[in-house]
Write a structure and sequence with these properties.
The protein is mainly alpha-helical. It has four helices and no strands. α3 packs antiparallel against α4. The longest helix is centred in the last third of the chain and has 35 residues. It starts with a helix and ends with a helix.
Length: 100
């Protein structure tokens, strides 16, 4: 089981469980919100993705700085992805209103 915790500091060996919980929320629990409220899904995902790099920066669970930088960078890119999806949803709904 060392592969699960060897890249984390001794105090935060359990960080992989936090990472897996974040992934589960983003891929599973967000889908429990009805498709009718697709924008709410994006908002919840954006909130989760925004809080994660903040917690990651405060906790600093990785032994190597490179791992920390990579984790924060990918989290920020995921935030940008969800923001772009939200903007697309808003613009499409505005376009539908004015066409019909």
């Amino acid at each position: 089981t060392a592969f699960l915790h060897r890249e984390y500091t001794t105090k935060l060996y359990w960080w992989d469980a936090v990472e897996q919980a974040r992934r589960l929320v983003l891929t599973g629990f967000v889908l429990l919100i009805r498709e009718k409220y697709a924008f709410l899904r994006l908002v919840v995902a954006t909130i989760v993705c925004t809080t994660y790099p903040l917690i990651l920066t405060v906790a600093r669970p990785y032994k190597r700085v490179e791992d920390h930088v990579l984790a924060v960078t990918t989290s920020i890119l995921l935030i940008l992805l969800f923001l772009c999806a939200g903007w697309s949803t808003i613009f499409l709904s505005i376009e539908e209103r004015y066409q019909g």
